[in-house]
Amino acid sequence: MLKAKINDDCFEIYNDLKMSKGNYSKPFLVMKMENSTISINTELSNLNSFEELSQNLPDNHARFIFYHLEFEMPSDNQLCKEGKRSKMMLITWVPEQQQDKEETNNNLNNNHKLTKEEEENEKIQSNFTKTQPSFNNIQLINIDKIKRPVFPELDECKVESLMKTIEEDYSKIPPVEGLRAPNGDVYVFGGCHRYQAHKNLNLKQMKVNVRDATEMMMQLYLGASYQPNVKK
Q1: What is the tens place of the pLDDT at every residue in 127-163?
Q2: What is the residue-wise DSSP string for 114-161?
């Protein structure tokens, strides 16, 4: 498991970004890891646009990008009401040149020793790959065991449409994405309409694509509310 210290300002500014409040006005936040410490990459975070950010990402170091995506739901969508929506996205940047460099090092019988930051980034890539979306670990999880730290506003017409689909053909309902913390708890951050549809139908279980997360990942998502090392 990757162990790393996360600077306090990472939590504060991340929460401001997520809640669209405070003094942080940018739509994205970039973090980096140096000497086993995760901190804000100020230079990249202060860029004016995502396009500018994409052009200035480093060629040989990993970066974590939290992006607050805002979009308009069109009026011709029959499943949900029109209006403004927002989603928080986590983008992990692991450049191909870093992977090529590691392959070259192996071919040279490891004559070139990786720098400390390159070693840390290699660990980051390995740990974050485990948390990328995958449909290889779909489980039926008891609904009363699912932890939902965020309760967004629901579109009732979308919930009703999902309830109808569940009753007619449950195979058409995709699983929600869940993170299993090291203490065994399963957290679901998205899929709010699917979750509510199951609740309205008094179903006891729902499909969850469970991915194991490190304590570092859970702290990034939950901040100070997450209590690690509490075994169930």
Answers
A1: 444 444 444 588 899 998 898 877 677 888 889 999 9
A2: PPHHHHHHHHHHHHHHTTS--SS-EEEEEGGGEE-S--PPP-HHHHHH
